[in-house]
Design brief:
Layout: E1 2-6, H1 11-16, H2 22-39, E2 56-59, H3 60-67, H4 69-79, E3 87-94, E4 105-110, E5 119-123, H5 126-135, H6 137-143, H7 145-148, H8 150-158, H9 166-179, H10 187-208
Helix pairs in contact: 3-4, 9-10
Length: 212
């Protein structure tokens, strides 16, 4: 099972502070990777929680079943350290509508410092992936696009998409036009522009590498 986690977070360093056994260390790292993959936003999924301020509702009962009760609280403690918090909550509780998802869900997202958008793939053990599939069946069904869109996916293998070179000239000119409209080097406006252009470049790179 491959999951995407923020490259900005030193999971190895966080877990090492606990002085666990080698086996416990590996298990906790894998569980933290899974938790972070549920919270983090990237160019591919950032719109999913846009209406919720970027917060992803994590249901504690469901998460505890997947990663364990003790590990759940250990991971939260490591990620919400008062000195340098990695994740934050909106303190808004949401009760799942489906009867199968008992308990309350709380919104979490990466803090601004760690929300760089840069991600890295981590491989989780097959045994753990089977447990996730068994417990979070509804979420996995939404993720399993291969079964539902295999015909479309096959077309990208048969017909490779390419971008004409002038696309970079267009993006450069577009970015320059936006930057000219920034007032007094407003950091919020600058960040919005850089994120927007960076997202375009990300998608273009994906197309050029046929990573669709």
């Amino acid at each position: 099972m491959l999951v995407k986690v923020p490259i900005s977070i030193d999971v190895n360093g966080l877990v090492a502070e606990l002085n666990l056994s080698p086996t416990q260390t590996i298990n906790l790292k894998n569980k933290m990777y899974y938790f972070l993959s549920c919270v983090a936003a990237d160019n591919d999924n950032y719109r999913l929680n846009a209406d919720n301020g970027g917060y992803r509702n994590i249901c504690s009962v469901l998460m505890k079943k997947i990663i364990g009760n003790r590990e759940y609280y250990t991971i939260l403690e490591l990620l919400t350290s008062a000195a340098d918090p990695i994740i934050e909550t909106n303190m808004s509780w949401h009760h799942p509508a489906k009867a199968t998802k008992k308990g309350y869900c709380k919104g979490y997202r990466l803090t601004e410092k760690y929300n760089t958008g840069e991600m890295v793939y981590k491989t989780l053990p097959l045994k753990f992936w089977k447990k996730v599939k068994e417990i979070a069946e509804d979420d996995i069904e939404d993720m399993d696009i291969n079964g539902r869109y295999q015909f479309l996916i096959d077309q990208f293998d048969k017909h490779q998409l390419t971008m004409a070179p002038p696309v970079y000239d267009f993006i450069s000119a577009f970015a320059a036009a936006l930057l000219m409209r920034v007032h007094d080097d407003n950091p919020y406006q600058l960040k919005m522009i850089y994120n927007h252009i960076g997202r375009w470049m990300y998608y273009i790179n994906r197309i050029e590498q046929n990573d669709l």
